Amino acid sequence: MGSRGPAPKDNAVRRNKHEYATEIPKESQKGRPLPRYLPVSTAAAKHFWKVWSESPQSATWIETDWLELESTTLLVDELYKGETKVAGEIRQRVAKWGATNEDRARLRMKFEEPKEDDESPSEGSEVPDMDDDLYKRLRAV
Predict the structure, then answer these.
(1) What is the pLDDT of residue 15?
(2) What pLDDT was estimated at residue 30?
(3) Per the CB 3.0–4.6 Å rule, which of 11, 75, 77, 93 could disulfide with 40?
(4) In the chain, where are the structural domains located?
């Protein structure tokens, strides 16, 4: 039996490479401090702000993206106060920033390869403790 179809070319070229793919530096950004006028009270919302403001994606943000982070941080604050109805809205918003591997693939977002020295964990990257009462309330749902 013969082979099916024509033989592949020696130097096959991927034709589905997107010309508008975004390549982002992998290192963390300096970030912006949480605005004083933003009334957040939970440690989780403050941590959410810190993580996203220092994320590699934030290097490409303009002022409207930062305003979106402010309003999403307020929703995260409400979530950790027990308002579980906002969880879906938060998920939709962070997906637009590339929160998961799947989101980044859909957005054609690619991180530059880090240098060998970039593999060490950064200092001060501790996760704040979750409020015990919130944990109990979320487990009850």
Answers:
(1) 63
(2) 84
(3) 77
(4) 22-27+39-112
